[in-house]
Write a structure and sequence with these properties.
Blueprint (H helix, E strand, L loop, with lengths): L6 H18 L1 H4 L2 E5 L4 E6 L2 H9 L1 H12 L3 E6 L2 E7 L13
Parallel strand pairs: 2-3
Antiparallel strand pairs: 1-2, 3-4
Length: 101
């Protein structure tokens, strides 16, 4: 059985993933605009300086949830149309932790 998704299907799925992420950080992300771009970077546009502070105070949890829920590989925080913070959502695996096959 083949599953063919239309562009509208994919946009709807992205919307639901972003809403799910927002639900975990309701007090913070409800005041932000979220956008996932083609390179799997989640952009968080904050409306107020105190929201930026709150997002940055939760950044470790936010990184993990962005990867698990949304599939984002990178995360960027913006205020006043300027990128003020960026990071990867997962820490790179050290050579000693890689699984050898």
């Amino acid at each position: 059985m083949s599953l063919n998704l239309t562009t509208n299907d994919l946009l709807l799925l992205e919307k639901y993933r972003l809403e799910r992420l927002r639900s975990f950080f309701g007090n913070t992300l409800n005041l932000c605009f979220l956008h996932l771009d083609k390179t799997n970077t989640l952009a968080i546009h904050c409306s107020e300086p105190w929201v930026v502070d709150q997002v940055l105070s939760e950044i470790n949890h936010l990184r993990w949830y962005a990867w698990i829920v949304v599939g984002a590989q990178r995360l960027s925080v913006y205020f006043a149309e300027e990128e003020i913070y960026k990071t990867v959502t997962r820490k790179p695996i050290k050579k000693s932790q890689r699984i050898h096959s």
